[in-house]
Amino acid sequence: MSLFTRLSSSYFFYFAILGLISPYLSVFLDGKGFTSLELGEIFAILTATKIIAPSLWAILADKTGQQLLIIRLGALFALLSFMLLFWLNSYWLISFCLALFSLFWTAILPQLEVLTLNSIRRSSKIYARIRLWGSLGFIVLAIFAGQIMAFYQEQGLASVSNSSFTKAFVVMGCVVLFLLLLSTFTIKPRHVPSAVKKQTASIKNKLLELRFMIFFIAGILLQISFGPFYGFFALFLRDLDYPGFAVGLFISLGVLAEILVFIFVSSFLKYFSLKSLLIFSLAVTALRWLLVALYAESAWLLAFTQLIHAASFALFHSASMIFISSHFSACQQSRGQAIYLGGVYGVGGAIGAYLAGALWLDGLGATTAFLTASVAALLAALLMIFLPKENI
Q1: Among 179, 217, 224, 232, whose CB has the most other CB atoms within 10 angstroms?
Q2: Please, what are the domains in the chain?
Q3: Distance between CA 300 and CA 258 in Å, rounded?
Q4: pTM for this structure?
Q5: Mind listing the pLDDT tens digit for each residue in 63-89?
Q6: Cα–chain center distance at 367
Q7: Number of H helices, E strands in the chain
Q8: Helix, strand, coil tally for the chain in percent (to 5)
Q9: CA-CA distance, 266 to 234, in Å (whole number)?
Q10: Which one-letter DSSP state was computed for residue 32?
Q11: What is the four-CA torsion angle of 313, 316, 317, 323, rounded to 10 degrees?
C-alpha cells in the first residue's frame, strides 16, 4: 500500500465522521427532545474542547515526535467515547460524552496534517489530492445518513422516526470511527531526527506577529459565521419541507465543489497570492449566508450557495495550511497547527454555535442567524485586507 493510499484512507474516515456529525448531530439531539437553545449549548461545549485540547496534544507531539501514536490513541478513545451515546439520554451526560469524544477526536487532525505535510515535503499539489479524499469521505456518509433519515421519515410517526434515527446515528458513527482506527495502523511511523525532537523553540513571537494575528482573528470570524450552518442546516431544510435525502444531496454538492478546489488549488496558488485567495474566500462566504437567509426556499439558489462552499472551506483551508506551514518552523508545526485549529475552530466554533442556538428560536430566528453569519464573514474579509502583503 502506497504512502498516498495510507494517508488518504485516514483522511477519508476522519472526515466521514464529520459528514455524519456536522449535518446530523442536530437531528440526533432533536430526537432526544432538546430545544434549539440546548442544541446551541451542546454544540458550544463540544466545540470549546478544541480551544485547549489540540495545544495539549501538540505540546506532547512536539516534545516526543510521536505524532502517529497520538493519532492512534485519539482514534481509539474517540471510538470508545462515542459508543457511550448508545446508553445516554440526559442533557449533561450527552454533553459530557460529546465533549470527551471531541477531546480525543481533536488530537487526530493537527498531527495528521503535520505528518502528511512533512511526509510529502509540503507539496501543496500532493496535499490537496490527499485531502480531497477527506471530502469524499464526508460526501459518502452525508448522503448515506441522509438516506437513512429519509427512510425513517417515511416510517409513520415522527417520534418513532426520531428514535430510530438516533440509534442509527450512533451505529454509523461507531463503524466509521472503528475504520478510522484501523486505517491509522496502515501508516508507518515517521522517524524524526533527534536534533529536531530536542529542539523546542518558543512560538510566542510568531503568534504575536501582526500578520498572524490578523489571519487568526479573521479565521475566528469565519468560524463564527458557520455556526448556523454546522449546527442547524439539517433542521433548517427539514423545516422548509425539503425531503430527508435533500440534506445529504445539498451538503454533498458543496463538498463536490470543494473537491474540485483541492484538485486545482496548486494552480490558484501560482496565479494568485495567499492574501487575495483568503479575502476572496471570506467575501463570497458573506454572500453565501446572505443568500441562505433570504432565498433558502429556492432549491436552485440554495444549491448555488452550496457551490460557494468550495471557497468558504476548501480554498480558505488550503491557503491557511500553506500559511501555517510557512509561518512556523519545523519544530513549531504541531503547536502552530494546534493553536490555529484550537483557536479558530475552538473559539470561533464555540461562539458561533452558542450564538446560533440563541438566535435560532426553534426555527423562528433562522433568517436572523444567517444574516448575523453574513456580517461575521464580511468583517473577516474586511480585516484580511490589512494582512501585510510583503510577508505573503
Answers
A1: 232
A2: 3-391 (1.20.1250.20)
A3: 18
A4: 0.74
A5: 777 778 888 988 999 999 999 998 888
A6: 23
A7: 19, 0
A8: 85, 0, 15
A9: 33
A10: T
A11: -170
